[in-house]
Write a structure and sequence with these properties.
The mean pLDDT is about 95. The two termini are about 25 Å apart. The chain is about 30% helix and about 30% strand. The chain has one domain: Bira Bifunctional Protein, Domain 2 (BirA Bifunctional Protein, domain 2, 2-Layer Sandwich), CATH 3.30.930.10. By secondary structure, the chain is α/β, with parallel strands linked by helices. The strands form 2 sheets. Strands 1, 2, 6, 7, 8, 9, 10, 11 and 12 form a 9-stranded mixed beta sheet that branches. A 3-stranded mixed beta sheet has the order 4-3-5, with no helix packed on it. The chain contains 6 helices and 12 strands.
């Protein structure tokens, strides 16, 4: 039986979540834990991937302070993106040795999870061949940036639900200047229950990646599972 552990972290500081990813990634590599999917929200944050162009951070220091936005250089692929309340961030910590050792197929599978989730709401989402992510026409509804080390994944996707899209104006999202950013609530014209979307994402992730069993754990239970002697 292939098991997925799911943990809803709620609103969590970016660095705290990053440290947690590193810890769980090491445990996954050492076979101390099964695959894990974290779903969460971050406070206002801009993150720059390892190949990001800092010119795409167009906001001033005053803008960052006024909007209480933290800025981090991180170790995922991709350029600059925004995280904030109302956006579901997904961090799968999975062993691709037990799925497919193909990072491109992994990216397409993450996109597929979000495409299926949007379809539940009647939205026809798809891909833009030149760019990673999920799109509705020329409007990007989800960004994806990953790190794969020793075939263990980190980072993942950022799916705009009730996101304050005005804060994307402080960056050139993913370094793409000629496309718009959108959200589920903007496309549907109403605020969306975020926990409903999380449930759909977990269901679709389980199906796309072929898990037989889903176990939901709190962060505390996850660590008990991970370190039974601690």
């Amino acid at each position: 039986m292939k098991e997925l552990l799911y943990c809803n972290l709620g609103l969590i500081d970016y660095m705290e979540a990053w440290d947690l990813q590193k810890e769980i990634s090491e445990s996954r590599y050492n076979k101390k834990i099964n695959d894990v999917l974290f779903l969460l929200e971050h406070p206002h944050t801009y993150t720059l991937g390892k190949v990001a162009d800092r010119k795409n951070l167009v906001s001033s220091e005053d803008y960052l302070i006024k909007n209480k936005i933290s800025v981090y250089d991180i170790d995922r692929g991709g350029d600059i993106t925004y995280h904030g309340p109302g956006q579901i961030v997904g961090y799968p910590i999975i062993d691709l040795n037990e799925w497919q050792k193909d990072t491109h197929k992994y990216l397409r599978a993450l996109e597929e999870v979000i495409i299926h989730t949007c379809a539940f709401y009647g939205l026809n989402c798809g891909r833009v061949p030149k760019y990673t992510g999920v799109w509705i026409g020329d409007r990007k509804i989800a960004a994806i940036g990953i790190k794969v080390s020793r075939w263990i994944t980190m980072h993942g996707f950022a799916f705009n639900i009730n996101t304050d899209l005005s804060l994307f104006s402080g960056i050139i999202p993913c370094g793409i200047s000629d496309k718009e950013v959108t959200s589920l609530s903007k496309e549907l014209g109403e605020r969306i229950e975020i926990n409903e979307v999380k449930s759909l994402l977990v269901k679709n992730f389980k199906e796309v990646f072929g898990y037989d069993l889903l176990t939901t754990l709190s962060k505390e239970e996850l660590f008990h599972y991970n370190f039974p002697n601690s």
